Request: fold
Amino acid sequence: MEPFSREPVTLNEVVFPQDTNSYGTLFGGRLMEMMDKAAGIVASKFAHREFVTVSIDTMEFKSPARQGDLIEVVGKVVFTSTHSAACKVNAYATRKADWTRKEICSGFFFMVAIDTQMRPIPIPQLVPESDEEIADWEDAQSIRNDLLERKKQNNSSSLD
Reply:
């Protein structure tokens, strides 16, 4: 089974007053919502499956976005396992005053493909080709391995 699309997904939004806190900056939760949406869309586009989010990791807020900024969220599938896809998502803010663009956040979103009964189903596999794709694959695989190890430790400790 081959991937249906390896193309990234880009979503664009404007930061409106209802999206901001008392400092006039974008709520982190609102940005995470945009990023999660991009991850879900790019995973679905990649595999032609429905996906749910199972984990978000290494989320790094680098700089605030302000009311009126344009937000660009770019998601791409960087790792796959039998039923899951890891999506690397980067967010950028463009200030309309001077049209400068800077990265404001990045993170890895782990998505699982599901059927109509909410059971995991197989997906096409990504084969990294470029040096950048290999580096992203290795980063995502390392994060996934850490998550699985923590889950294993939590399950075994609860049995003590």
